């Protein structure tokens, strides 16, 4: 099984341009929330708790994250719980609101992602390895931690494999 460093370094190799990183800080949360919204139907209210397919997906993802790293796993579990909560709220609204919010967040989130990869000059990581779809949210959490000065040994291990985030952006072809 790949380690946390293996997964993050592989994903980071596709994300060294700061504009692409910025796009991921916006687009990935939108996509994660969109998936939570869209998977919140069908569902059932049992004693004030909304049970739907998103609960199973979020639980499986949290277990995956926990197996990689306890601290990041707990953080991602909280983030996913908030997304599940938001998705449940929207799922209980009109079909138009639920579907509009879910599809809108999903489409706009992906557009932002692809704009970032245009600046990167490289295709998204999931094109080469589908695990990039689950590593993306973890990568955003890790990069935020690195910006806050947390988990420096992990950041150094990743940068030893793929180099630091570029300070200068590569010119965009005209």
UniProtKB/TrEMBL annotation:
The keyword Transmembrane helix applies. GO terms for cellular component: membrane. It comes from the Bacteria. One of its GO terms (biological process) is sphingoid catabolic process. The keyword Transmembrane helix applies. Keywords: Membrane, Transmembrane, Transmembrane helix. PANTHER family: 2-HYDROXY-PALMITIC ACID DIOXYGENASE MPO1, DUF962 DOMAIN PROTEIN (AFU_ORTHOLOGUE AFUA_8G05310). This is DUF962 domain-containing protein. It comes from Stutzerimonas stutzeri.
């Amino acid at each position: 099984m790949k380690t946390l460093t293996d997964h993050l370094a592989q994903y980071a190799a596709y994300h060294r341009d700061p504009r692409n990183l910025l796009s991921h800080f916006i687009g990935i949360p939108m996509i994660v929330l969109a998936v939570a919204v869209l998977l919140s139907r069908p569902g059932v209210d049992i004693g004030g708790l909304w049970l739907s397919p998103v609960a199973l997906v979020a639980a499986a993802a949290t277990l995956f994250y926990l197996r990689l790293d306890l601290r990041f796993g707990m953080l991602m579990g909280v983030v996913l719980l908030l997304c599940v909560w938001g998705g449940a709220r929207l799922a209980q609204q009109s079909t138009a609101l639920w579907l509009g919010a879910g599809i809108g967040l999903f489409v706009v989130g992906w557009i932002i992602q692809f704009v970032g990869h245009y600046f990167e000059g490289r295709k998204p990581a999931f094109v080469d390895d589908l695990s990039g779809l689950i590593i993306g949210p973890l990568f955003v959490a890790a990069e935020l931690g690195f910006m806050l000065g947390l988990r420096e040994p992990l950041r150094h291990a990743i940068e030893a494999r793929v180099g630091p985030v570029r300070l200068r952006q590569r010119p965009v072809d005209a």
